[in-house]
Amino acid sequence: MKSQLVYDAAISLEHIGKIFEILSKVPEFVEKKSQVSGIEILPGGLTNFNFKVTVDDVTYAVRVAGPDTHEYLDRPAEKYNAQIMSDIDINAPIIYYDEYYGHQVCKYIDDCITLHIPDFKNSEDYLSKAAKVFRKYHTCGQPFKADFDPLKETYAYLKILKEKNAELYEGSEQMLEYVEKIKESFARHPQELAPCHNDPLCENWLDDKKNFYLIDWEYGGNNQPMFDLGALAIEAELSPEQERFFLKEYYGRDITDKEYGLLIINRFLCDYLWSYWAILQIATGKSHDEYWPYGQNRFNRAMKLVENGSLDKALAEFK
After folding, report:
1. Which InterPro entries has this protein been placed in (predicted)?
2. 20 to 30 A from 107, CA-CA: which of 84, 146, 191, 316?
3. Which segments within the chain are labelled E, that is strand?
4. What is the full DSSP assignment across 244-278?
């Protein structure tokens, strides 16, 4: 009896072909002469293309890496880092990983929900769970393969953009002055590094009521832990009160003004970094209409911390 493939009409033939090519690299599937019966698009992801794929009646999450992402992402490091997170039940179990291009097959987390902004914004329970997941892997004692330094990443992006003569957002020079101030502050007050995700979008969190997962570790690296918390605070659109609750859940105690200031500094660094990442996507051929507004929104949000005095107040804690 021939099996029938059911797939979303929105999936391109190119991606269907790529999915089959990736699956053909999984030894278990080759040995069993496995059959694919379904392909669905999974939500989220600006860099890659994600699909729920049914193979022999078992579901998997297949990631087709974005074109040329291997040129600026350390894929072997991601494999190493993601496996550590799978071993401590934070990442989904990895079935196959392409160390060159970054294609990946993971066990699909059945009966799970993908979280979105309202889930965190309207639920202290999810904020508490996320804080505990962050705390768990930040203190796991297993360093990642490489560091992720937002300051160095920012300078690297700017160097590439300058070489490509790319257009920058208005106010970039003023923002760079604050990056220099932060660099000086951290030189005076070095921050301890820990394994970090560095891009914990709301949609990277999965809840199956048994475990709370954080997936997609392609930007993972040793960083100061507050960068992760700052990133999620931005993505979930948390209020200052919610941010303080989040930090209290993370530390398991009342927080200091210096700790809250560190969150503000990292919120600035996170938005500033990804605003230039967006321009880099344009410079490498992606849609201006899609990435320029995305980066502009992040840039404006970082600028607001300058204009309302929040960043200066935070930096005063590190003099």
Report:
1. Kinase-like_dom_sf
2. 146
3. 6-7, 36-41, 49-55, 58-64, 94-97, 104-107, 113-114, 194-196, 205-207, 212-214, 221-223
4. HHHHHHHHTSPPPHHHHHHHHHHHHHHHHHHHHHH
Q: Report all structural domains of the chain as residue ranges with CATH numbers, in order of start.
A: 6-73+92-107 (3.30.200), 113-316 (3.90.1200.10)
pLDDT single digits (tens) 129-172: 999 999 999 999 999 999 999 999 999 999 999 999 999 999 99
Q: Among 23, 24, 18, 54, which Cα is nearest to 38's?
A: 54
Percent of the chain predicted with pLDDT > 90: 89
Give the other-Cβ count within 10 Å of 307's Cβ: 10
Does residue 213 contact residue 91 with C-beta atoms inside 8 Å?
yes
Q: Rounded to whole angstroms, how far apart are CA atoms 11 and 34?
A: 21
